[in-house]
Hints:
By secondary structure, the chain is mostly helical. It is built from seven helices and no strands. Helices cover 76% and strands 0% of the residues. The longest helix is centred in the middle third of the chain and has 21 residues, at 29-49. The model is unreliable at 51-57 and 102-116 (pLDDT under 50).
Amino acid sequence: MSTQDFKSELKNQTNEDLIKMLGDSKVSPMAKEMIGKELEERMNAKGAEGAGGAGESEGEGDDLKKLLKKLQDGTISSEELKKLSGMLGVDVATLEKAKGKEAGGGAAAEGEIQGG
Length: 116
């Protein structure tokens, strides 16, 4: 599949589907980057429609990038998960499932806490 085809396919996905793809270990890093850009573009478009205009949406786009990175790394806090959930309109439980599988984050971190 070409990059252009993949980008077109992303446009037809819901935010929830895109988050699930981010959490899938079979999805390549390049594809995950394109998914992040698609989510960012959606945020910017949504922000531009609101009263805040472009200046406000740029800040949200940066926030979104950072939060998505943390989600993928498994280093996102529950507070940040709630924020990301609100930004994307995606359930926190869906974000939890996508969280840090790549880095082995979620389950491993919990095991360490109990392991003491």
